[in-house]
Design brief:
The chain has about 160 residues and is mainly α. Among the domains are: about 45 residues, no CATH class; about 60 residues, no CATH class. The protein contains 8 helices and no strands. The longest helix has 24 residues. It starts with 14 loop residues before the first helix and ends with a helix.
Length: about 160
C-alpha cells in the first residue's frame, strides 16, 4: 500500500526560469504577428527619421516651461474675452429655436445670393424703386422682419 500524501510541494520557479518562459512567449507572439511587428517597426523608423521622438522627448523635458507659456497665452485679455464671448453666444444659442435659426440662416444665404447677382448688374436704385419694392411681398416681409428685429433688439438694449 502506498503512503498517503501529507504535504503538497508547490514548484517554485527561479527568476531565470521565469525570464526564459517570458522570452519564449515573446518569441511566439513575434512569430504569430510578424506582419504587424514589421509594419510597426517601419512606422517607428519613419517617426524616428522625422525627429518625432526627439521632439516629443524635448517637449516632455520642457513640460513645465510649455505649460507656463500656454497658460500665459490663454490668460491674455483678448483670449479671455474670446472665451467669454463664445460662452455668452453659446448660452444665447441654447435659447434659440433650432428650426427658426435654420430657416433664418437659409434666408440669409438666399438673400446673399440674390444680392450678389444684383452687384453684377451694376444697376442704380432710386427712391422710386425703393417705394415700388415695398409692394413686393418678399421685400415687405424682410423689411417688416428687420424692423421688428431692431425693435426687439432696442428693447433688450434699453433693459440692460
Amino acid at each position: 500500500m502506498a503512503t498517503p500524501i501529507t504535504t503538497i510541494k508547490k514548484e517554485t520557479k527561479t527568476a531565470e526560469q521565469i525570464k526564459l518562459e517570458k522570452i519564449e512567449e515573446l518569441k511566439e507572439l513575434l512569430a504569430e504577428n510578424e506582419d504587424a511587428v514589421s509594419k510597426t517597426m517601419t512606422l517607428m523608423n519613419e517617426l524616428n527619421d522625422l525627429g518625432i521622438f526627439d521632439a516629443a522627448t524635448s517637449m516632455l523635458r520642457a513640460k513645465e516651461d510649455i505649460a507656463k507659456i500656454a497658460l500665459g497665452q490663454v490668460s491674455r485679455e483678448p483670449v479671455t474675452n474670446l472665451i467669454n464671448t463664445m460662452m455668452a453666444a453659446g448660452g444665447a444659442l441654447t435659447k434659440a429655436d433650432p428650426e427658426f435659426t435654420a430657416k433664418l440662416l437659409e434666408s440669409v444665404m438666399a438673400g446673399t445670393e440674390q444680392a450678389q447677382s444684383f452687384l453684377k448688374e451694376d444697376k442704380k436704385v432710386g427712391i422710386l424703386d425703393l417705394l415700388k419694392a415695398m409692394n413686393d411681398p418678399d421685400i415687405n416681409r424682410a423689411v417688416g422682419f428687420g424692423l421688428q428685429f431692431l425693435k426687439g433688439m432696442g428693447k433688450e438694449l434699453r433693459e440692460q
